[in-house]
Structure formats: structure tokens, C-alpha cells
């Protein structure tokens, strides 16, 4: 039997995803600066736990099921494109990312895993890698899909706005971030970066399938 709600605890006596408010309450009660939120869907809860509390603060987490008409309004994805995604085990935790051909799912590149990464960082690096890959393949018009609004925003701002601490465990990752930011500042591209509409189209083809 599926739980009616899922409770994500980012900061508390114990971090994790819980299916009971009473259990969740035990892990946050009396804990200064506790960060937690309820979700109506397990998949959303798992994705949120891999991310940061700040990304979901004040955002509705109710799962919306689209009608057939609403799905039609989104149209269909453009298959002559590439799609990127990241996977992170923990927050932070082992992180990796990859890019695939949207039409076939053929893997075009994969990087990682990197120690002490976050999903948002992986999504950002995946997009920049994808843009550089398309430039190298002389595909200046080809579209690139990402299911992360945050990563798309960071790429457009040419800045990875992560709050992940810089230390010995994250040095390699921050070196990659710096290289990605430099690439964005020193290169121009025409490739459209488009949000993959998971609600209408299902999981992005580059998804690692670990939900």
C-alpha cells in the first residue's frame, strides 16, 4: 500500500524520507533549523531529497495529473535533439551525469561518479558538457533538453549558484564547475535549451532509472 504522503527531512535528528508524520516529527522536533517538507508523490520526494530544501521552500508539491487535452497542449518532444540528466546518491553524495540521443537513448557521454556532489550541480555540468559536445560535433542548431529549471537558469546566468561547501572532498567538482563557467563566458552557442516536460512526456531519456 502506497503512503498518502512522503516527508523529506533535509536537516534534522535524522535525514531521510518518511511515510509517517509522527515519525517525521520525532526527527525534527526540538532540532534548531530543521528543514522538512511533505510531498504527495514518492518520486517527487526522492527527487527533492537529492536536491536542496531551498529549491522547494514555498513551492507547491502536490502532484498534478494532466488530462489528455493538457498533454496535447505541450506537444511532442523534438526527437532530433540530445537530452541530459544527472543522478546523485544522497545530498550531497556520489554524483554522475550523462547525455543521450533523444530519439534512441544512445549514450553520447557520461561523467562521474564524483564524490560529494549534488543533483543540481550534475544537471548544470551535464548541460554545459552537452553544449560543448554539440559545438564539437558542429551541430549549432540542435536542441538540448534538461528536466531541471534550476540548471537551465544557472547556464543562462553562466554561474553555478550552488551552496555546496568547498573543501578537499569537493575540490575536483569545483574545478569542473569553474571550467564549465569559463566555457560559458568564452563561448557562444545557438542551441536552444528546452525544459523537458516530464508531466506530459514521461521521464527524460537520459534518466538513470534509479527512482
Runs in which pLDDT lies below 50 for 5 or more consecutive residues are none
* Overall mean confidence score, pLDDT: 89
SSE order: EEHEHHEEEHEHHEH
Give the overall silhouette.
globular
Report the strand count: 8
Query: Which structural class is indicated by helix and strand composition?
Result: alpha/beta
Query: In percent, how much strand structure appears in the residues?
Result: 15-25%
Distance between the termini: 18 Å
Q: Give the helix level as a range of percent.
A: 25-40%
With strands numbered from the N-terminus, the spatial order across the biggest sheet is 6-5-4-7-8
Query: Mind summarizing the main beta sheet?
Result: 5 strands, mixed
Our count of helices gives: 7
Q: Provide the gyration radius in Å.
A: 18 Å
Give a quick summary of the entry.
The protein has helices spanning 21-28, 42-50, 68-74, 119-136, 149-157, 171-186, 198-201; strands at residues 6-11, 16-18, 35-39, 81-90, 93-101, 107-117, 143-146, 193-195. By secondary structure, it is of the alpha/beta class.
